[in-house]
Known about the structure:
This protein is an alpha/beta fold. It has a single domain (38-289), classed as Metallo-dependent phosphatases (Purple Acid Phosphatase, chain A, domain 2), CATH 3.60.21. The protein has six helices and twelve strands. The strands form two sheets. It has a six-stranded mixed sheet with strand order 1-12-2-3-4-5, with helices on one face. Strands 6-7-8-9-11-10 form a six-stranded mixed sheet, with no helix packed on it. Strand 2, helix 2 and strand 3 form a beta-alpha-beta unit. Helix 2 (74-87) runs parallel beside helix 3 and helix 3 (110-120) runs parallel beside helix 4. The longest helix is centred in the first third of the chain and has 33 residues, at 2-34. The chain starts with a helix and ends with a strand.
Amino acid sequence: MSSRKSATGNLTRRRFLAGATLTVGGLAVYSGEIERHMLMTVERTVYIRNLPAPFHGFRIAQLSDFHFHDYDESFFVRHAVERVNSLAPDMVALTGDFVTTRGDQPNIVIPNAYACAEILGTLTCPIRFCSLGNHDVLIKEQVADALRRNGLQVLINQFTALEKRGEKIWISGVADAYFDIPNLSLAIPQRKLNEPIILLGHEPDFADTVASQNYVVDLMLAGHTHGGQVRLPFLPALLLPAMGEKYVEDLHQVGSSAMQVYVNRGLGCMHLPFRFNCPPELTLLTLQPA
């Protein structure tokens, strides 16, 4: 009798272990091959004070955190570009980490910067702005050159105006706040006639610095966090980088200021080629007057 119970117990344990192994394996396949390529289009309306009438309904598509050829393949970046092109936005914002660099041999990934930029150059929207991320900084001259060669305007502590029917909004780009030297006095124009300012910057928590220094920015577009990348049920995001721990994803008001920050979950992955409960994101923001 005891041997029969022992055999039954062993069989039950084996079944449990087999089931657990299949479950873990299934989750690995799902998060590594399915959700990692499950591009989600997130549409949000952003209300901007003093938005000029010609820019009512102005649509901005945002992609971020490509980490090209590390855990992001050519076909998936092409797919994202095709999706953006199908939306026909008025402007495209690309908010950094085009490559993945490591401190020992950063030059190895320079070809990835040019390959990624070549694909992004097929975006059909003529108004295309880029900021750089912390992984781009070690080879920032090459990343910026790759983007510019493919018709993408890079803003590093710079700004430019978009004008429609005599009215303006300003597009700014700040240097990476993690490894570079952001200079807000160069990146943000002197505000004239309350014209709106949109700032591209990779690390979302830098928004607090912008607001604390009394720079008037209406909207900051950021990435960096990957939305946490692996989001287990009932638990907070576990894989958050420094300067991406407060504003993790989606649209946020920055303190008591009028500034808002939108955090895109990114296209690629870091550390592990997995996404769970946190699919890659293409954002489509529509500007409307507040």
